[in-house]
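Could you show me just one protein sequence together with its fold in token form as a worked example?
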Amino acid sequence: MTSSQDPPGGEDPRAGETRWSQSPPPPYRQPPSAQVLSIIGFVCAAVALLFVPILFGLAGIILGIVGHARGEPLGKWAAGVAGAFMVVGIVLGILASGLRP
């Protein structure tokens, strides 16, 4: 005895349908306003002018590159500015150390 819920002949009524009725969601992308890594890269670049330029300059470059790889439009600018400020910070450090007796 078959129940009234079983399809006739034991066939699956969804046999011809695909498993997904909708396409899978697109990969996650950050909204353009979320440029956290680029902003931190700019902050590191500014700090690199006066304090430990090699450390903060490299941190700004790395954060800018990672931000650019994640789709942040300002990432490449943050990396460039951090590199330039690192060089300027090193030059300022050399000049400042030459002024001491």
Remarks:
- The mean pLDDT is 82.
- The two ends are 105 Å apart (CA to CA).
